[in-house]
Amino acid sequence: MENTTVKRGRAARLLAALATTALSLGVLLMAGPATADTVNDEMPYKVSGNVQKSGEPLAGVSINVNGNGIDADVVTDAEGKWKVGVSERNTTYTVTLDETTLPEGVIVKDNPETTDVVEAAVMEVEMGPGGRVTMNYFIGKGERVVAPYIDQVVQRLISGVNFGLMLALAAIGMSLIYGTTGISNFAHAEMVTFGAIVTFVMSGMGAPIWLAIIAAIVASALFGWGLDSAIWAPLRRRNTGLVQLMIVSIGLSLAVRYTFQLFIGGGTEQLPGADAPKIPLFGTVALSWIDMASMAISVILIAAFAWWLMFTRMGKATRAISDNPGLAAASGINVDSVVRVVWIVGATLAGFSGILWAYFRPGIRWDMGGQILLLMFAATTLGGLGTAWGALVGSLIVGVLVEASSLFIPSDLKYVGALVVLIVILLFRPQGILGRKERIG
Amino acid sequence: MDILGILNSTAGFVLAPVTIAYALAALGLAVHFGFAGLLNMGMAGFMALGAYGYAMGILSFGLPWYLAALVGLGAAVVFALILGIPTLRLRGDYLAIVTIAAAEILRLLFLTKTFDEYTGSADGLFGYNGEFQEANPIADGTYGFPPFEDTAATWWVRIVGLLILAIATFAVWRLVNSPWGRVLKGIREDEDAIRSLGKNVFTYKMQALIIGGVLGAMGGLVLAMSSNVNQGQYVTSLTFFIWTALLLGGAATVFGPLVGSLIFWVLQAFLGLLFPAMAEAGLLLGLTSIQAAQIKYIIVGVALVLIVVFRPQGIFGNKKELTFVR
Hints:
heterodimer, A: disordered N terminus, B: 69% helix, globular
């Protein structure tokens, strides 16, 4: 998504201006004879449109109309017009503009229905009872600038480190929970989403963003405490098996996820500042201040966490339980209270990572945590299940891998690389990079 | 609120192709988890292979429908082999994470625009069932009585689906009561004990993974026969729903998964209609009917937690034959 350097706020204004221009032009053109390139003319209903860049028609652009059994390709004529006949009305069609057929240095502008730039060339159109629908694309210049390869690599690496640090915040907690309790916590995804949603709700109620973030962190800590005292502590007392605990976390994940959807709906919402302008650093490499702040805060939080784990009594107790729970209990450590603190710390880090994830994606969705759950698992397994530093190393590798892989493979396959690495690492080094062999059983 | 209408629509799900598909997949999961103790969290991937193999066999390779169906099942065998070789030697929760990741890789491969020509990417595949329906011996028309009244085409899917389910259930029932099945249960209880008897544990586990995977692919096949194929159906939630159906009926039983799937879908359909209707009637504290439709999924999650904690053997299971050994 970093291919375009256009800002969304400006894009929206441009779009409005272009829409007005296109409308008036459309009225003018309607007076003339319709000479649009037409496919399936024998069909009763028509999807049509014209492709132009600030009033100048673009010929030879490929458009595909898909849906209800129709899959037709059409090419725009000299006036930039096209038309496809279809058999059904009162339904929707998917119209896709093939961007590679646009002239050099020109791209489809963001469309209002999606925040995903890759998807901007794909539009859903509603065919009403009238049987006619027009679909116009807004084309702008200068977006598809091909950055020098080295700049792309640097941009991807920075982006990957940013993503990896954010992932690490969530994965460290997940790994710590695994180490002390043995739970593969599928509900960790919902702890990530929770932080973002609280921030969104608080800022929606008028709180400034810093206050909303603090509220989200406090709420996340309470959430972790609540989950532990309501669900996990009683199950510990029942001596519930590990597989059962894993399935409980799946059930919990489903219940909490759909509760989120119940409250915030199925759409994507933005946090304030999500459209912060990018500041050029060198070449075409650019970062917004949100990206920079996100990385800085991640590093500070991870350092603070490291200090806690290495030097405080509680941190030492946590590591002791991770190593050998029986021995830790025998030497006078209160396992139950340490595990509770681990849940609180894990939930707090996860909640904060959720806020960063909301800015990175960008946007808040009810299942946003679930989208990176498998990457968290990949990171913790890669680094070594149950080791905090392993989770950090694993996250950074996964983050860079995911972002950098889109230099070589299509961007809609970028998560595949990380998941393949997860499987391959289990083939050759199942204990992970920093894990110990006796843990794999 | 139209209670009778809701009950009527709900009853239709007793024989729906989707119920049959869930039953097949849950049966496969019973072989994996209930009898062999394998934590397969990637059942959606096996189902996707069954469905896509069938649809692509017809659309891309021009095979007759019955051969295309075999392509899907064959793909599931290959997938089981690829998954099993690295992971069956590892502890249970590793298998869970690898299978869930592998299923997601498959889904992303079906979703990507790179293979759009073969997979239809986000739109999925459709219009492949023509030949299957031409083989339909039932004359056109509507058969049955409400609420089981349907077209010849739907009945044909149901009959084929029920036939597959009956054969599969019989086969699994014979298998788990054979010496092979007893070794498998032994592996579930204590792998090392079975190994000390000179059995090759890895081979047995692999055989179980393949058999269960093929059953899952059959489930996907039945889904594909009844509607379109779209990667959006084969998300990780599907795996979790099938786990819920399995654990509801009883993991270490042959008929538990069938009854579990039936109960799961009847309740899903009933609650999915009841809550929106209640919301429209203003009985749900101002929730809209769209919001109310989410409640059934929340209930699935809560139900899964409660079953696992309070009745881990399921409705039909025997507490002595508990599958959660570790």
